[in-house]
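Quick log. Single chain, no ligands specified.
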Amino acid sequence: MRNPLMFQLSQPQMILGLAAILAVGAPSLRAQDHLWDTEPSLWKVAQAYQLTRPLPVQFGVEGPTVGGANLNKAKVTAANPQGEPGINLSNGKIKASLWGPCDRLTLSISKTDVYDRTSPKPGTDWKWEEGHSPRPVGQLLLLARDFADATQPQVSTALHNGVNSFTMTSGKKTGHLTYLASRSQTNVLVIKGDYAGLTEPVFVRVFSFHHQGAERPQAGNDGAFFWIRQSLPAERTFPKGFDYYLVAKVVGADFALKNVDGQTGLGSPTFGQDAGSAASARIPSGAATSFLVYATVVTRAETADPLAEAKSRIEAAERSGLTRIVADNQQWYQCLYARRERGRIFTGDLSNSLKDILLPFFYQGSWQNRHTYMSCPDPTKYEGDACYAGLELDAAPWYGLPCFNEEMYTGDFVAGRNESISPYYVNLVNFWRGAWEKHAAAAGKAGMYYLRGYVPPVTNDTYFSYDSAAMSGNDWCTMAWSYKNVWDEFDYGGRDDAFLRDSVYPGLRDLADFFGSLVVMGSDGFYHIEDSQLRENVVGRDAQDCVAAAKWFWKTAIQASVLLHSDPSKRVAWQKFLDRMKPYYLMPDGTFGGIVEKGTVKQYKGMQHYIVNVTDEYNLESSPEDRDRAYNSCEHDFLGANVAHLLGKNPDSFTGGATYWFWMFSRHPWLMYYSIKVLGVGINGTTTLEKPVEKAIACWFEPERLCNSRSGTIFFFPCVPSNFDVAFKDFQARGGFLVTGELRKGVVTYAQLKARRSTQCAVMNPWPAKMLSITQQPENTPVATAHAGEKYTFAAQAGRSYLLHYSR
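-> predicted structure:
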């Protein structure tokens, strides 16, 4: 199938590759000499790596902070690289942070489906009010008075299995603790305690504060298991009420159970909270005391009987034992590091400073969605979460849910780090599409629409957003921010036509139709978007990002409909809109104007980058004049830092950003966190790339420096720092290609493409002024190509690999 994404050439331009192949140069080195052969596997390095940091006394969440989201005023800077405290034990569904003094070790816990879904008034539709946000689950505490005067220990985390261990000492008393979060779907937390010389009993406790708007938590036990049950009021999604159980069991030691409800001093106070309920297991003192604790959280969203399911999970974990759980975790992490080999960057030297950034990033950054970088929620299972949802907070900022106006994930797709990004958006859009279609119809518009965010984890029959009640100018552009991730999963991710037909095109068609019903024809003969909105608060005519979003949806819907041989009449209409859409306004200095406000063209920060970084309208194939205009326009934009490398500019510099907030959401927070911690890379301003490790990290942050296909044509090494040898393996490119390349001493020494779909492939010659030749591997069969200038095209077949050469 020919792909309309790719450049098409007329027959007279066709040049058969057979003759050109007769004198082929072999630019690549011998296989054993490639940069990827000089570095150990990530899995091998991870097995020998221990991440060590102090156990904090005070509550906090390990890692990056966003706008005070974790309620800690300390920001991650070069002067304060530690950021917030806490030891991260998250596993995708459960978020947990370990902290506290040695005599009161505390694990603060939340879960992606524990959410306040109640409406302001019984029986009304779900609307946005303060208080609707993820709710804390509770705490799992280990209390040992013998260690009241012990020095806070260093916690070591094994990056190949997630085992966290530390030792406490007080005179001749010792306590060796192991904490582990299972990476399986059973969501089991495990603690292993090995004590010696104790004179006081040890208490294992599950605890929950009395949260606002909820019933008082209830403690319970049956002689073997002990738990906290928390209930939230009945509402539309759970008409019989929503509840969850935090359940634990002690194995290997004698214990006595006790429940206490409605008292203070039971848990570890955070943010002024104190009163609550607890269920405790008292383990008597002895010369030597060893035991295991298994704990889990199960909710009404998962099963009709959460307590029974929690017991079943713990019993299964007990049968497996700690050794098997650690082995299962090790297998999970081995698969994680194997996935990171696809999309890996090689420099020939995995130095300590580079290793100290990348290995913790891979380990902590299992989830690549930047709003939910410590969890992996599934909207179809009534899960929701964001990085600013605090573990111990009743009311999270921004409702503790992702917003849709700063997603810039295409680079993550290029590097193959999209396994948690795309499912979230694909599930979200398809789960809510019916409600969004009704929402548009009720407003007299075609297709569907949704706005800048905070889609709640509730039943999907009616949708309201706090800013969507009025149809006038409410962030139309933000739909492209998020929907591009759905398209990129097909385009970059190599998914098949069935995925395009079933999961991508229905919503894409709806949104293209919506913009078609939104625009109006002006007296100047162009279509306009009246009362459009620039990001969040500036309303006027033809907001640049709204116009760009409309064009992107029409263009992309046309491409998809051609591939699927569907909706020819809609294609005609969409093309008409594209052809007659009002061009972007220009300022006197030649840069783009953002919006017409009260009859005057204005330029505002926050959207100039959109035409480069979101809709790909200006790219490496744009004319030099257009690329300069787009780049110069982005200097007015606090997200413009992400644009230079996409236009092939400033290869020897790396720009942070004007604000901490958007710097984080434009690049992965865990990578940022460890880069600051190890290198002291600033979040503001521009850094000149001088050291090899700085150049390497710039490429990890911006993989499209090495491979850029936003125009539909694959470019090898378009923006690489000077004097830098670098290679990459299996980057994803538009059209579903996997791309591998190597650059040494400024010369491309290896270039290979793998096709995952049968389609036209367009590639820019890695060796300008030399005749490019392409051979199909492993047969080494010459491929017929066509070219216009340095741009070559050929028909690629699914499952085939293609090696690029130049003719002497």
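The CA atoms of residues 436 and 448 lie 5 Å apart.
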